[in-house]
Amino acid sequence: xxxxxxxxxxxxxxxxxxxxxxxxxxxxxxxxxxxxxxxxxxxxxxxxxxxxxxxxxxxxxxxxxxxxxxxxxxxxxxxxxxxxxxxxxxxxxxxxxxxxxxxxxxxxxxxxxxxxxxxxxxxxxxxxxxxxxxxxxxxxxxxxxxxxxxxxxxxxxxxxxxxxxxxxxxxxxxxxxxxxxxxxxxxxxxxxxxxx
Length: 196
Hints:
The structure is a single chain. By secondary structure, this protein is an alpha/beta fold. It has six helices and six strands, in the order βααβαβααβαββ. The protein has one domain: Phosphoglycerate mutase-like (Rossmann fold), CATH 3.40.50. The longest helix is centred in the C-terminal third of the chain and has 18 residues, at 123-140. Helix 2 (28-43) crosses helix 3 (57-68).
């Protein structure tokens, strides 16, 4: 199975350095970059059987901009799912990212992967969602899928396969070829379409 992965375009919270709310939208740059991704998918004639998109606003906006870039997929083959949403850091939404990481990595006294803020999730919770998502796409029968998701989810999804890959830029394109529990990286964090 070919799994194309993109992180949502730059959000307003990415640009301003705070943890996003679920309703946080894309910046002007994020909108333009996502549209360029759609143009790339068309130009390179990349075959996608189905799209899996996080339910959060910034990913839905990214998908809309990909379509504005000219890319098309059968609407019946678009799956909006909470399985691939960003880690829930409810208590820290709207606050600088540095505050969350300071608590998670030092003052909590927990392994950072086990830290769960009030009303939120841990990295291990996200990994469990990633495992459930892997089962979902394996059952789908699709050969070529596009995932529109978030940084934390991408990291946990990769960890299922023992991969430690760099964090991805907004609207970058990556490709994994997955065969059961093995994943081969074909390309990662490709932003060549954004430099034009």
